[in-house]
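Hey, sorry to bother you again with one of my protein questions. A protein chain has come my way and I'm curious about its shape. I'm sending you its amino acid sequence along with the backbone structure tokens. I owe you a coffee for this, so here goes:
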Amino acid sequence: IECFDKAIELNPIKNIYYRNKGTSLNKMRNFNDAKTVFSNIIEKERKIPNVFYQLGISHYGLQEYRKAID
């Protein structure tokens, strides 16, 4: 996660660093932080389907099943 934070610090415009960080957080079962990362990406750019998928995984992991479906 620290490497993603450093990459974001060096180039905050590249969404791929945020997406990779959020996906890694989901895999580490850190769903709250992942949800925050993906929600921030969606606020900036709504065109990336994988972000919505990963946000759904975050909601599911937090047992927010209704939100995971939406």
